[in-house]
Design a protein that fits this description.
This protein is of the alpha+beta class. It is 40% helix and 20% strand.
Length: 788
């Protein structure tokens, strides 16, 4: 017989247990925050975000893409800051050819002149060197205070702290890379060309994809078991998990660590990702950079460098099977080898079957009841995803990209929808099945997802493994105590203790996934939160207790408010700016100039360029590989000087024509694309002596170009006639055009970044100039005849 319970305990046990679990979830979410920033007068041996921010504020007030004079100013600032600290910086200048993918070099590969800044602090008994890295260039649409001046400032402040501390055993190399935004050119160049590369044993990279939030260690190299053990010991606030590493490896995106990773060098890659709306925009400014995020970067940089700086570095990063790891608290991490993932999954399957058999033996679990619980949980998951999906569909239709300004409202709304759906499904099924079998049925999907993770993404298995294991242990005790007795406060609190690990482990993933994947994935977030909500069924559906309707009302009201506020939107403002896209194209082969826009030029600033008539057409004369359709309108012809092509040598022998060309950009255009016309086959190519792609059709994108001339060598299978070399230069900023002076841009309008409109190559604020040069055999380069 079930044990009796008093009416008072029966009425308060469930609500108290559920309140505790929800409070633990709120704690889990709130605890994953960056640390408090240290002031400028903090002890010299510590990292101070306030001191580091002084570098950001001084160096990063304007966009400084690679190849521009503004980027040279940032490099000069970093070099002077290093000299002030004592070391002598090395400026590593070279032509970098980025090898994309496997196999030989191919057309379209990025290549260009660049300048890396390298500093080496010598250790007392070096084994291998630690390399700290950040990139100093920005995109063309914002000053890059977070991305990645924050990383550069982190390196400078870390260098300062190390200089006033006891010397380390190992060497420390500081690498400030150029042209990360242009294709990781600086990092690739260091790996391929710099003699220090062979000494590097560990890379610690700092980057961002936002302006706030904790600094996550989101990527390592393969076989990270040994490294993770040391990382957990070294970091005081090691926010990371093997789930995010698994996702990142499968996303196909890259950072400056990628060429090191691909070369077999172990690393720890860090980024903060909060507030993606400001990523790569004018609002990535020093004022919007969160000092707590900068401080967290600094914790990682200084603590990890001091720790690994005194280890035998080859042994500290020796290959070992990948680890499964995750935060228990912001300062405590659990870890174990991934070799345990499959045995743990099989043990969990056995445990699930055993608990079901126990329930059947006790007369509390039936197959039909399990099916009802599983069906109700699945229905909650699907319903939550459908509701969140419908909201996001409306949001995209109403606001398109601008939904990111309310990103947190969308992903938290999705999470609350999932929780509400799970609780509603539990309330529904409690009248159709026993609480015990319903709760066990809900765990079926946890077991299924654990199996999927174990086979396809072992690093993510902990998300399902430990909540499920503890829940099974709690339910088995519930069954042993006889069902009805679980309405008492003591038993409910006991159940609460077994469900708490799942809530604490799962809840911090909600903002992490919401910020990394954005509200577009609110349906998926709603689904996984419904999964978490079903985990609470043991304290939600057992016994009779008041307050369920109040909780439902509060959940639905809060969700409605979040989604309602987000969908309503707000007027554009400097904090929530409207994006605009206007570029200029001048085709000197035809003498025709155009204004171009990727958007519909709806804003008051862009519309002035298109008020004399507009059409939609491609822009392949400026973007040869882009088939997108763009808004175009006639523009005045600006007096722009094209890139100069000078033939230095032109020789033919044995059916092979050899050309050596000097390329100079009078406008110091940071980007240029070169395309050989016709059926010309390139047998060999080199840029400033560096081998480049051969074959046909042949093209080359040179970025950053800048003020330095380039020398291009081509060996061609002897063509039948003259060779046509088309050059398309791209610089940043719109030109002065005769007879037209545009109005200044309002405060609530900013340039569209490269984070929108995937699949289309045109952006904003570009000036593109096309010119075709005819390379006749034995003759100087000539331009096509000017149009009449």
């Amino acid at each position: 017989m079930p044990a009796s319970s008093s009416p008072s305990s029966r009425n308060v046990g469930g609500p108290i247990a559920l309140a505790i679990l929800l409070a633990l979830g709120a704690y889990g979410v709130n605890s994953h925050r960056p640390p408090e920033p240290l002031p400028a007068d903090a002890p010299a041996v510590l990292f101070s975000a306030a001191r580091a921010h002084e570098h950001v504020a001084a160096a990063c007030r304007e966009p400084h893409p690679a190849g521009t004079a503004a980027n040279d100013k940032v490099l000069d600032y970093i070099a002077e800051a290093v000299r002030d600290l004592g070391p002598a910086p090395e400026i590593h200048r070279l032509t970098s050819v980025r090898h994309l993918g496997k196999g030989p070099l191919r057309p379209g590969t990025n290549v260009g002149n660049l300048k890396n800044l390298v500093v080496r602090l010598r250790g007392t008994e070096p084994t291998k060197a630690i390399l700290l890295m950040a990139h100093y260039d920005s995109v063309a649409w914002g000053p890059g205070a977070a991305d990645d001046c924050s990383g550069c400032a982190t390196l400078l402040e870390t260098m300062r702290a190390l200089r006033v501390s006891r010397p380390l055993k190992n060497d420390v190399i500081f690498l400030f890379t150029d042209a990360e935004e242009g294709g990781l050119l600086g990092a690739h160049a260091f790996v391929r060309e710099h003699p220090y590369f062979k000494d590097v044993g560990l890379v610690i990279n700092f980057d961002t994809r936002g302006t706030n939030g904790p600094s996550y260690m989101f990527e390592t190299g393969a076989n990270n078991g040994t490294l993770i053990r040391h990382f957990i010991r070294a970091a005081s606030r090691p926010m990371s998990n093997s789930f995010m590493v698994g996702i990142y490896r499968r996303m196909g995106v890259n950072s400056d660590y990628s060429p090191f990773r691909d070369s077999g060098v172990q690393g720890l890659n860090h980024a903060f990702i909060g507030n993606i709306a400001y990523y790569h925009t004018a609002n990535d400014s020093p004022e919007n950079l969160d000092l707590g995020s900068l401080q967290h970067h600094g914790h990682h940089a200084l603590e990890l460098t001091r720790y690994f700086g005194n280890l035998d570095l080859p042994l500290a990063v020796e290959p070992a099977r990948d680890a499964v790891y995750f935060n228990l608290t912001p300062s405590i991490m659990a870890h174990y080898s991934s070799r345990w993932v499959m045995p743990l999954f099989l043990l969990t399957v056995i445990a699930f079957i055993a608990v079901c058999r126990l329930g059947k033996a006790r007369g509390l679990v039936s197959i039909s009841g399990l099916i009802k619980g599983a069906a109700a949980s699945l229905a909650a998951l699907l319903a939550a995803a459908a509701v969140a999906g419908a909201v996001m569909f409306i949001a995209w239709k109403r606001h398109s990209y601008y939904f990111v300004y309310d990103n947190a409202l969308y992903y938290w709304g999705g999470a609350l929808v999932g929780l509400a759906a799970a609780l509603a499904a539990g309330w529904f099924v409690r009248r159709r099945a026993r609480p015990e079998e319903s709760a066990l049925g809900a765990l079926v999907w946890w077991l299924v997802l654990l199996g999927v993770a174990a086979f396809f993404m072992p690093g993510a298995s902990f998300v399902f493994q430990w909540p499920l294991a503890f829940a099974l242990a709690g339910i088995s005790g519930w069954l042993l105590m006889g069902g009805a007795s679980t309405e008492t406060l003591g038993v409910q609190l006991n159940l609460c203790g077994f469900l708490a690990p799942g809530v604490l482990l799962f809840s911090p993933l909600i903002p992490g996934l919401g910020e990394s994947l954005t509200g577009i994935f609110a349906p998926a977030l709603a689904a996984v939160t419904a999964l978490l909500g079903a985990l609470l069924w043991p304290v939600w559906i057992s016994g009779k207790w008041p307050g369920r309707r109040v909780l439902f009302a509060a959940l639905f009201l809060t969700t409605g408010v979040l989604f309602g506020v987000a969908l309503a939107g707000k007027d554009f403002s400097p904090e929530r700016p409207q994006l605009t896209s206007v570029s200029y194209g001048l085709n000197l082969d035809t003498g025709v100039a155009s204004w171009l826009s990727r958007t519909g030029a709806e804003d008051e600033w862009a519309s002035q360029f298109f008020n004399q008539g507009r059409q939609t057409a491609h822009a392949q004369e400026f973007l040869p590989r882009d088939k997108g359709q763009y808004l175009r309108a006639a523009a005045p012809v600006a007096p722009l000087e094209p890139l100069q092509v000078e033939v230095l040598t032109d020789e033919s022998a044995n059916g092979v024509r050899k050309l050596r060309l000097r390329l100079v950009s009078p406008r110091r255009a940071p980007r240029a694309e070169f395309v050989l016309g016709g059926d010309v086959e390139v047998l060999r190519a080199a840029v400033n002596g560096a081998p480049y792609a051969s074959g046909k059709p042949w093209m080359m994108q040179y970025r950053p170009f800048g003020a330095e001339p380039a020398e291009l060598e081509l060996e061609l299978r002897e063509p039948a006639g003259p060779v046509r070399l088309t050059v398309i230069e791209t610089s940043y900023g719109l030109p002065e055009t005769p007879g037209f002076k545009p109005r200044p841009m309002p405060d609530h309008v900013i340039l569209e970044p490269n984070t929108t409109g995937w699949g289309k190559g045109l952006r904003s604020n570009w000036t593109m100039v096309r010119k075709t040069h005819v390379l006749g055999a034995g003759k100087p380069a000539q331009s096509l005849p000017a149009p009449k």
